[in-house]
Amino acid sequence: MRHAEGVPLRVVTVTNVSVGADVLMVKPSITSLAGLRGRPIAVELGGVSGIMLFSILERAGLSTDQVSLVDLPVNRHLSAWQNGDIEASVCYEPTASVLEQAGGTRLFDSSQVPDTIFDTLIVTEAAARRKPGAVRDLVYGYFRGQHHLVRSMHDAVYRVATRQGITPDSVRRSLATVMLPELAANQRYLAHHGRIEVVAKRLSGILVREGLMASHPVYERLCDPSFLPRSLS
Predict the structure, then answer these.
(1) What is the pLDDT of residues 102-129, one digit of tens each?
(2) Of the four listed, 139, 144, 145, 229, which is most buried by Cβ atoms within 10 Å?
(3) 10 Å Cβ neighbour count for 178?
(4) In what order do the strands lie in the sheet containing 178-179?
């Protein structure tokens, strides 16, 4: 969380909203959220997985001191799972599917906490100030790519699959778990006091409360919709 570390950042685009892409994978012995009590849970606390975890604990009626949090990058969750170091993982694809193949169960996902988990395009304040044209070109390029994905899904899926070295079906499954906000939705998400700022403030409040962050960063200028194109024509 570079913004929390004092590096001024600007969110210039919301690229996707998770509607099932972020998942709580558990060992078969855990059959309910309440069953997380006392269990070691792997999670990247400093990222969006952190707010996913705290949403899960809230639903379960549990506090962080009633579970064992293992702050771990998601690319290390499988080895921790196989070594018996964790019994649950807050993760996303492809780790979720890999853990499922290893015997895990999907107990909860982001479709149950709508408009909470976002992927965003972020630039430093310095880059936004010094090279606004380049930032606009970057954002425009993203939306042109999104336009192609939506209008020519078959072609786009095969291009992504080839680049990522995965199957087209895997790409389709992943796309089914995210919503791709178009321009109008981005304007709403990036508005002053919009959803992105609300979620960022909530996560920082939780991290401060849990002693994982020293103080609240300033979010008054976190989002900047001025780089969004007016149209794609």
Answers:
(1) 999 999 999 999 898 999 999 999 999 9
(2) 139
(3) 21
(4) 118-124, 9-18, 178-179
